[in-house]
Amino acid sequence: MFGSKTRTLLKTGKADSHGNLAVSYRAPHSTTFTVVFAGDAKYAPKTVTQVVYVRARASLAISGNYAIKRIGSYTYRLYHRSAHLNVAGGVAPNKHGECVKIEAQEYYQGAWDANVLTACGVLNTSSKVRDT
Predict the structure, then answer these.
(1) CB within 10 Å: which end of the chain, N or C, has fewer?
(2) Closest Cα partner for 88 from 131, 45, 124, 46?
(3) Which residues contact 25 (CB under 8 A, 6 or more apart)?
(4) What is the pLDDT of residue 73?
(5) Is residue 121 part of a domain?
(6) pLDDT tens digits, residue range 21-32?
(7) Is the dihedral of CA 100, 58, 96, 85 positive or negative?
(8) Rounded Cα–Cα distance for residues 126 and 70 (Å)
(9) Number of domains forming the structure of the chain
């Protein structure tokens, strides 16, 4: 289903009196888990597969504005025409070395218009990128 078909044995052992065998695993990406019960004198063998989907969480912080203005329920950050917009972002789970692009938009004549798309920013070892 996903790019890699590598299989890793996480745990083997006997189930408790309730039929449970617990294991913890932090999945770095969407992963297919398979549990195999070999069977015994009372129960037939059984294999169950479950896919766990991992989604990215992105964060963004902007600065460089000289003021913040609220109009109704909207908050606007005000920038000087010649000011530099500072942007910092992050992705979780950690995607060190991968590329992110940030798009800036402006509200003009009743519609949002994409006016800036950054070049690829490579995520550092903390899965963060900063435009300085």
Answers:
(1) C
(2) 131
(3) 10, 31
(4) 92
(5) yes
(6) 899 988 878 899
(7) positive
(8) 34
(9) 1
Burial string for 60-73 (b: 16+ CB within 10 Å, else e) reads eeeeeeeeeeeeee
Domain containing residue 69? 57-131
Asked whether residue 81 is assigned to any structural domain, the reply reads yes
The answer to whether residue 75 scores a pLDDT higher than 70 is: yes
Q: Is residue 85 part of a domain?
A: yes
DSSP 85: P
Q: Are 23 and 15 in contact (CB under 8 A)?
A: no
Residue 127, in any domain of the structure: yes
**CA–CA gap between residue 27 and residue 11 (Å, rounded):** 15
Tell me the CA distances in angstroms from 66 to 7, 48, 81, 87, 121, one per residue in order.
53, 58, 11, 15, 25
Instruction: Look up residue 6 and give its two tokens.
Output: 């590598």
Token pair in block for residue 115:
């006016």
Query: Is residue 125 over pLDDT 90?
Result: yes
- Rounded CA-CA distance 126/92 in Å is 9
